[in-house]
Amino acid sequence: MAVYTTLAALELATLIAHYDVGTLVSAKGIAEGVSNSNWLIETSEARFILTMYEQRMDVAELPFFLGLLDHLAAKGSPVPRTIHDGGGAAFRTVGGKAVALIEFLPGVSVDRPTPAQARAVGAALAGLHRHAADFTGERANSLALPQWRELFADCGADGLASIDPALPATVAQELAFLEASWPHHLPRSVIHADLFPDNVLLLDDRVSGLIDFYFACRDLTAYDLAVTHSAWCFDRDGTFRADISAALLAGYGPLSADEAVALPVLARGAAMRFMATRAYDWLNTPADALVTRKDPMDFARRLAFYQQAGAQAFAA
Amino acid sequence: MAVYTTLAALELATLIAHYDVGTLVSAKGIAEGVSNSNWLIETSEARFILTMYEQRMDVAELPFFLGLLDHLAAKGSPVPRTIHDGGGAAFRTVGGKAVALIEFLPGVSVDRPTPAQARAVGAALAGLHRHAADFTGERANSLALPQWRELFADCGADGLASIDPALPATVAQELAFLEASWPHHLPRSVIHADLFPDNVLLLDDRVSGLIDFYFACRDLTAYDLAVTHSAWCFDRDGTFRADISAALLAGYGPLSADEAVALPVLARGAAMRFMATRAYDWLNTPADALVTRKDPMDFARRLAFYQQAGAQAFAA
Predict the structure, then answer these.
(1) CB contact under 8 A, A108 and B290
(2) Do A289 and B291 touch (CB under 8 A)?
(3) Which of A216, B69, B298, B305 is most buried, with most CB under 10 Å away?
């Protein structure tokens, strides 16, 4: 969460003039996005999020991400539309960096969802998968099982042990298990792949926005549900919330028998995916950096829960 | 510029419910304020800035700062009003930290002001001094000449020399000069003391907001003009902008003969004030911290300009 780049007012006004959105009234750098700089922009006509893509983003992937937003919005998913400039372009370049102007959506991210909110999130995720079905853009998942193994290897056994003495053995066993049992044959679509509570905007029980699609890729839709399950169904202290789980799954709707059987494996995979990136960041971020490191052990505990609970974690 | 604290949606909604401002619609952490966390809050009725005062703020001073905003707004200065809660309090406490809800003002900060904008800023500063004249709050300037000496002493001659070899001698000579010639007898009021371009919001040539009063204190009004002059009248590359200077001074309006004579000394003081805090921060902020260190030499060069130009820097 940072604003890496200062955009002077004159540059902003000049940039905004390339879009048919009125004149600049206000601009505030906002603390959202891990590898982008973002501004909340108000013009005489409406509000927008201006995103500047920093070093970690491959600009060649922008047409996929921005095209996906437009596709999903046109289908009725609550995702922000990309505003195209006067020449029809979905992004422009300022000072050598790509920028995109994106619709502002109201709503707040919740920290402790209610079952009604979890049900709405499940339904919104199902809608997203349905609406993405005929999207023709292609992007492979760059954080799939082979990359988890690479990230854990980069951490090293000593690094993992410095986080928790049991972690090297846990990771080795779990990677072997997942590689042996990953259900590659399940239905695919373009998925969000990172639908944490801070990427969902809610107005009371209604999902007003699904945001931050920069991990979106083509992968198993049931894996996306598992990611969302692992991100939503645990309290701050790590306690499993069976009521939230049941509501999320009910909102998502029926799964095929194969998907239902695979869900415990996919959830273990989801826990490993976030353990992998968090462990890597934990070991490679200075303790005194202003960026908050997220504790990889949160997901080690969720992994242990999914290992023990099996199908019980997904009971109605 | 940072958001130090995470405020969950539920806490925000609970907090907002203590104010007669409608219900929460949106909340974005914004990258403003050096020692506070700030959110841009939208409710069903209006928009607000929510400020959480972090460790560097003495809560005992909040009534001064927030009372000053209310006083100036009531007099017609373009400053944000403090929203009082249902019990009439100007600030509340959340998780042990003070928070205040403040009116949102439109406008953008400019990087390269036009003369018309500089004139408007001068006029707004004069209005602020006039409107503050009968404000009864008291706060001494905690960054006045004695504190500059302390800050430079904390840097040490070696520290200053590591920034620039000539700096220790420049600082010693200038502190002696200022201590011998500081015009303590000039008119006083409550002053802003930090009116940099990022603390002024503009809509075209109109000042729509003066913000960030957390250095406000009782001191010489002509010193506030000198601070503003040192902050506005130089290009990014350090070139003096005579046209901006003339417009700022014309907008501010007539000075007494004593003030006009003292202005070159006060501007040298202003340059020293920002050199002092920037040099201290430069030496005490890790180079790899996410906080951008501001180069103290920017103000060393402005000091050199004021030393050489004398009264010519303030010619019409």
Answers:
(1) no
(2) no
(3) A216
The CATH number of the structural domain formed by B115-314 is: 3.90.1200.10
Q: What is the pLDDT of residue A2?
A: 44
ipTM above 0.90, yes or no: no
Residue to substitute from A3, A26, A41, interface B, most B β-carbons within 10 A? A26
- Rounded to a whole number of angstroms, the distance from the CA of B133 to the nearest CA of chain A is 30
CB-nearest partner of B10 from A32, A107, A111: A111
The CATH architecture assigned to A9-103 reads 2-Layer Sandwich (3.30)
The radius of gyration computed from the CA coordinates of chain B, to the nearest angstrom, equals 20
Q: What is the pLDDT of residues A34-55, one digit of tens each?
A: 678 889 999 999 999 999 987 6
> What's the pLDDT at A11?
85
Among B2, B10, B40, select the one facing A290 at the smallest CB separation.
B2
**Contact criterion met (CB below 8 Å) for B212 and B194:** yes
Mean pLDDT value of segment A110-132: 96
Q: Are A274 and A297 in contact (CB under 8 A)?
A: no
User: In sequence order, what are the residues at sequence separation of 6 or more whose Cβ sits closer than 8 angstroms to the Cβ of residue B36?
Assistant: B51, B52, B53, B54, B57, B214
Residues of A with Cβ-Cβ distance to B202 under 8 angstroms: 9
Chain A residue with CA closest to B39: the answer is A30
Contact A231, A188 (CB under 8 A): no
Contacts of A236 (CB under 8 A, 6+ apart): A111, A112
Question: B87 touching A, CB under 8 A?
Answer: no
Query: What are the residue boundaries of the structural domains of chain B, listed by start?
Result: 9-103, 115-314
| CA within 13 Å, CB half, B297 | 9
pLDDT tens, position by position, B75-117: 999 999 999 999 999 999 988 889 999 999 999 999 899 999 9
Q: Mean pLDDT across the stretch A154-179? A: 97
Asked if residues B176 and B209 have their Cβ atoms less than 8 Å apart, the reply is no
Best of B15, B28, B202 to mutate (most A CBs within 10 Å, chain A): B28
Helices of type H across A47-166: 62-75, 115-132, 145-163
pLDDT single digits (tens) B187-200: 999 999 999 999 99
Chain centre to alpha carbon of residue A236: 19
**Each residue's pLDDT tens digit, B276-309:** 999 999 998 766 555 567 899 999 999 999 999 9
Q: Among all chains, which residue has been given the structure tokens 């983003």? A: A57
- Chain A contact present for B34, CB below 8 A: no
| Interchain contact, B106 vs A29, CB within 8 Å | no
The encoded tokens of residue B148 equal 């500059």
Rg (CA), chain A: 20
Chain B, nearest residue to A201 by Cα? B26
CA distance A104 to chain B (A): 10
